[in-house]
């Protein structure tokens, strides 16, 4: 129970004022630097402060049969831009869903992979670990060395501002679609040239094997005829 003197002590502080206590100044080496965007009135607890990169950038990734999803390049190509942002982790994250899976491989009743023209896919995702939001554009390029002759690629516009991504979605979609068409047009021409070259190599190999087979067959026939001629005198002696 609180007694009368205790109540007085809480209600009449002016009668019991003490000398003001001044805390010693904190050494400079232990001081915490101010939030860098305080002049702009930003909230230091916002998601922007958790970003591991200094500005927006574009990440291009591919799927490799040997190592899986891997980053190819960033635009701009400057390590100062993406800082400590984990490109390998994010490449794995954005390519973890293989949207081409239903189009690639061996169709039922077919012994060979079927070449398909796959439509692009567009999605927006966020990653709290990296403090990042991204517009992600999936596309497929053709490669004779890849599984099913297709190699998945991904272009991502990465920003710490989710509102910017959502607000500019239509513009990002239009511009990335243009870039995708340029890549696919060049890739299809290069793929056609490479395919024609492989077909010529295959035809040349078939011709060489056919010629060698004919030569070997003639040599075998000649040897067999010679052997029969040698056997005739031996039969007469018997």
Describe this protein's structure:
This protein has 238 residues and is an alpha+beta fold. The protein has a domain at 47-187. 40% of the residues lie in helices and 18% in strands. The chain contains five helices and five strands. It has helices at residues 4-11, 79-82, 87-94, 162-167, 169-237, and strands spanning 57-64, 68-75, 121-127, 132-142, 150-159. It has a five-stranded antiparallel β-sheet, sandwiched between helices. It is elongated and about 140 Å long.
How much helicity do the residues have? Answer: 25-40%
Q: What class would the helix/strand composition place it in? A: alpha+beta
Order of helices and strands: HEEHHEEEHH
Q: Strand-residue fraction?
A: 15-25%
Rounded mean pLDDT is 75
Specify the overall morphology.
Answer: elongated
Total strand segments: 5
Low-confidence stretches: 1-13, 34-39, 41-49, 101-105
How are the strands of the largest sheet arranged? 2-1-5-4-3
**Rg result:** 37 Å
Major sheet description? 5 strands, antiparallel
Terminal Cα span: 140 Å
Number of helices: 5
